[in-house]
Amino acid sequence: MSNTLTAGGSKGRTGDKVFSGLALFAGCLILFVLFCVAAFLLWQALPTFSADPADITGGEGFFSYILPIVIGTLIAAAIALLIATPVGVGVALFISHFAPRRLAQGLGYVVDLLAAIPSVVYGAWGMTVLAPALVPVYEWLAENAGWIPIFEGPASQTGKTMLTAGIVLSVMILPIITSLSREIFLQTPKLHEEAALAMGATRWEMIRMAVFPFARPGVISAVMLGLGRALGETMAVAMVLSGGALMASLIKSGNQTIAAEIALNFPEAFGLRLAELIAAGLVLFLITLAVNMVARWIISRHKEFSGAN
Amino acid sequence: MSQTTSTRSPLRKRSLTKNRLPGWALWAVLAGSVIVGAALSSLAGFHVVTWALFSAVLFVIASYAVTFAVEGRRKAADHLATSLITAAFIVAVLPLISVIWTVLEKGIPGLTYNFLFTSMNGMSGVVDNETVANGTSVLGGAYHAIVGTILITFWATLISVPVGLLTAVYLVEYSKGGALSRGITFFVDVMTGIPSIVAGLFAAAFFGLIFGPSTRTGFVAAVALSVLMIPVVVRSTEEMLKIVPNELREASYALGVRKWRTILKVVVPTAISGIASGVTLAIARVIGETAPILVTAGFVNSINWNVFSGWMTTLPTFIYRQLMNPTSPTNVEPSLQRAWAAALLLIIIVMLLNLVARLIARIFAPKTGR
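The joint structure predicted for all components is written out below.
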C-alpha cells in the first residue's frame, strides 16, 4: 500500500513540476514577447538612423520626417480627449447616479455596444456620413471664426479633416472612459453619499463633494487609457483624414498621424522606406508605452481605496 | 413630514414649499424653448439640427434662470448639472444610432447569398462597369474574406488561449507576489495598450527577419493578433481564477490531490464559464482588427485556405479595400455595396460573440454557494 502511494506520489511530483514549469514559461514568454516587440522594431528600424539624411522621405533626415506626424498624432488625440473626457464622464455619471436604477444596466450595455463596433466600421461611417455632414459647419467656422489659426479657411470641401478625425476618435475612446469611470463612480462609499445628502446637499453637490474626490485618480487613469487608444488608433484616421503637411488649421485637408502614415504606406513600402515606417512604429510604441505606464502607475498607487484595477 | 407640519400650522407649510417650482414649470420652459428655438432656427434657414441645438441651449439657459430666480443658486446649479449630464448622454448615443442606422441601411441590400458564398476572384472593374450599365445585381462577394477571418482568428486563438491561461494560472496559483509576478501583471496591463498597428509591425518585422522581408501570410497575422489577444485572456482568466473559493482548493489538497491535478480538475472547471466568456470577448475584440492584418497578411481577391503561405484577406481589410480602392474607379457603387454588406456582417459576428459570451457567463456560472 505504501509502495503504491509513494510510486503515485513521485509520478504526481513530475506532473507538478512540469505544470508549474509550463505556467512559469508562459508568464516569462509574455515578458519575452514584449521585449521582442521593442527589440525587433529597433532592429528593423536601425537602417533609418544610419542612412544618409537626403535618402529619408522629405530629404532632411529622420527627425524632420517624424516630428510633423508626431505632432499630428498628438493633435488628433488632444481633440479626441477634449471631446470625450467631459462627455464620457457625463455619461458615466448619468448611468451611475442619474438614470433610473432599472434603466442603468441596459444603458451600460449600450455603451459596451459602442466599444464592440470594429474600428474600420467607425472609419467607414466617418468618411461617408460624418465628413460630408460637417462640411457646412466647417464653412461656417471658416467664415466666422477664420481669424483663429485653427479655423483658418478655406474649409475642406470633402470634410476629411483633422477635426473630423478627432471627432471619430472621440467616439471610439468614449466607451473606455465611460465604462472605467462608471465602475469607479459606483464604488463611491454609500455612507459618504448619504452623509452628504443628509446634510442637505443637492444631488450635484453630493457628487462634487463625495463622488469626485473619491473617483479622481480612477477618472484620470481612465482618460490616460483613452489617450493611449487614441494615439494608436489607425483605421479611423487613415480613412477619415486626407493627410498632408503639418498645418495649424484643423478644417483643411492636411496633417497626418503616425499610425495612419504606416497603414497607408506600408503595403507598398520596401527597403529604406520600410525601415522608416518601422522606426515610426517604434516611436508610436514608445509614446503609448509611456502613457500606459503612467496610467497604470496612477491606478496602482490608488489601488487600495479606489479599486480601479 | 409636510403633512404633520401642515396640520399644526398652515404657515409652516408655505415656508417649506414656497421656494419650490411647481411640477409643470420645467415642461413649460421646455415647450417655450422649443418654440423659440424653431423661430431662431428659421431665421437662419430652418434645419432640424439647428432647431434641436438652439432649443437645447435655450432650455438649459432658461431653466437655469428660472430655477435661479425661484429656488436659489444651489438648486439652479443642480438643475444645470442634471441637464448637462443628460445632454452628454444624448450626445454619446447619437453617433451609435447613426453608425448602426448607416450600416443597416447600406448593408442590408448587399447581404445576399451570392455575397456570402462567392469570392472576388476574377472581379475586375469591367465586371462592375457592366453591372452598373446593365442594372443587374452586384457580382462578387466576401467568401474569401470570411474564410480568411475564420482561419486567422482560429490560429490567433490557438496561440493565445494556452499562453494566456497558463500565465493566469502562474499568477494566481504559483507566484507568491514576487517581483516576477508583479512584473508580469504590470506588463500585461501595459500590453493591453499596445497600438494594434505596432503589434502588426512586430509580427511583420519578426517574420521578415527570419523568412526574408515582406513575408506576408495568414500565420503572421495570427501572431500579430495573438499579441493583442493574450493580455485580454490573461486579465479575464486571472479575475476568474481569483474568485474561485479557497475552500475548494483546500478540500482537494486534504484528499491528497497534487497541486497540478487540483488546478486542472477543481480550480479551472469551477472558473470555466468565466474563462470561456473572457476568451469569446477577446475573439470579438481581435476579429475586427484591420491595421495589423493590413501589414501582415496583404490582400488578395481569391480564396486561400493555407495560413502558412500566400496572402489572405479578412473582413475588415476587405471593407477597407473596397472603400478606399474601389474595384472599378469609375463606378464605385458595387464596391460600396460590398463594403457595407461586409461591415454589417462583421458587426453581426461581433455582436453574436458578445451575446454568446454573456450567455456562457450566465448559464454555466459556477455555484459558489454565495
